[in-house]
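Appendix B, record 7
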Amino acid sequence: EIIDFDRKLRLLVLEGVERIEIAVRMQVGYVLGRTSPFAHLNSTTFQPNFVQPRLDSEMPIQHAVWWKRVAERRDSSDEAFVAHFRSRYDDQMPIWALTEILELGQLSRLYKGLNDESSLEIAQAFNVPTKRLMSSWLASLNYARNVAAHHARLFNRKLQNSPGRPKPDVIPVLNHLREFELKGGYGAYNILAVVAYLLTCIEGGETWTSSLVALLNSFPRSDILDLSSLGVPDDWSDLELWN
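Structure tokens (predicted):
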């Protein structure tokens, strides 16, 4: 029963992250595309440390590494719209088209490198107050998606890449995340709460939250395990986030 619960939980995480990923793709393409179709190749789009070499390090420029991987993904794509840009425009794809082929990890790294103005506008579209918080959440979503996509256990996993927690009263419905945690690390509940919050800004998100509430209520009866193994607080069902 617990194995079946975990399978359903992974499928729900994949669905929630998919909705968020598509919405973030659209928002990135929209915000950057207003400045230039090729804003992703313009150094002014990014923080200096993303596009300039570090004098104290031999590490490659972050933007160059990101673009190399994106270009490889573009070149290996068999999407019809990619073939169109390949044959008609010598592979020159505007940002609003390029975002359609970005993996979530590549999208996350792109967002982290953006200048403050663009990154904050994107974050505020999802009612996230800071770039730092949004960047942390995107990285955590990518981690959780990878766990779920590779059929790894999720329900009582300690998150290696846990989402940042907002400061008190910055996002009141998430205040409780600072008050409860599993011994030795953050549980899967943290990422579930972040997904639920982000989906409040995306059409259809409330159906995901209802499905998750029903799943949590169906957790198998056991003398050994209960919902606290996910990092779920005792009063979770009374919290505003889930109502």
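Remarks on this record: The chain is about 55% helix and 0% strand. The radius of gyration is 19 Å.
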